[in-house]
Amino acid sequence: MIDVDGLSFEYPAKRALDGVGFHIGPGTVTALVGPNGAGKTTLLRCLATLELPYAGRVLLGGIDTAEEPRRARRLLGFLDEFFGLYDELTVLQCLQYWAGAHGLEGDVTVAARDAAARLGLADRLEERAGSLSRGLRQRLAIAQVIIHKPRILLMDEPASGLDPEARAGLADLIRSLQADGMTIVVSSHILVELADYSTHMLIVDKGRVIDHSPIGGAERGAARLARRLRLVLARPVAAAALAGLSVGPLDLDGEGAAVFDFAGSLDDQAALLRDLVARGLPVAALAEDHTSLQDQYIEKLKASRP
């Protein structure tokens, strides 16, 4: 759904993106993470056709954003961290305006009411945008950018300033949009929440992609993506004892433990456990690795630096 190749962008005194390339599949939720100043917002703005890179290209649904930006924008919804609302307009008027701006045909009021209902704003249609709380303003901003039912949604720090209840509601919304087939990219520093709904993590540092991989335990519909499992043996064993496993060779650490990606079902996991026990291995545990997303992020960030 999103293909980026050799993307580079420069500000007068800094190269913000340096040969960035990656592929994001349809129906996924990608957590875009990295240190401050890593290039995340610039990358999102390039994807959203708001910045023109000096090198490389971006394809959205096969459309080259440099050659056909207007056509590409029809696929897009983009929520900026510092979004703006027309405070003097009512919620309904804001949504009607955005429906018209996106060129929706027919009665824009129907689209406006549908978007409001989806974001829990159906009882706020006659209230002015300027009178809403921070959380409700965020909901209205999201309703505006999804009113035309885009195939791709880009969000820059969407949970900034939200209370815990509003953040939980945002996570539910993102899961709902993904279930409808939307491809979503979310940039945030709140990795604990990203882990609740993201299927992949894309790490950017100093203008370059240093890692792009599935997040263990993530689901897309009924399909199961690779999970990270941790095998713990009561004592270390020879490497030959682990040869020929269905998951390939495992590298045990000095304490007899190994972490590996596993794409099979729970039945496949049970079969793997039977195989390990049948080999006479002292299996103490075989379960999902609960290393937090933040720990994975820090580990990969450190590994990429000299």
How would you describe this structure in keywords?
elongated, alpha/beta, Rossmann fold, 306 residues, P-loop_NTPase, 31% helix, Alpha-Beta Plaits, 15 strands, single chain, six-stranded mixed β-sheet, four-stranded antiparallel β-sheet
Instruction: Tell me which CATH architecture of the largest domain applies here.
Output: 3-Layer(aba) Sandwich
Order of helices and strands: EEEHEEHEHHHEHEHEEEEEEHEH
Q: CATH topology of the largest domain, anyone?
A: Rossmann fold
* Radius of gyration from CA coordinates: 22 Å
Question: Major beta sheet, specifics?
Answer: 6 strands, mixed
Overall tally of structural domains: 2
Can you tell me the CATH class of the largest domain? Alpha Beta
List segments where confidence is low: pLDDT < 50 over at least 5 consecutive residues: 217-224
Give the helix/strand class: alpha/beta
* Gap from first CA to last CA: 33 Å
Instruction: Calculate the mean pLDDT score and round it.
Output: 90
Number of helices: 9
Helical content (DSSP H or I, runs of 4+):
25-40%
Gross morphology is: elongated
Number of DSSP-assigned strands:
15
CATH superfamily of the largest domain: P-loop containing nucleotide triphosphate hydrolases
* Major sheet strand order: 6-7-8-3-9-10
Range of strand content = 25-35%
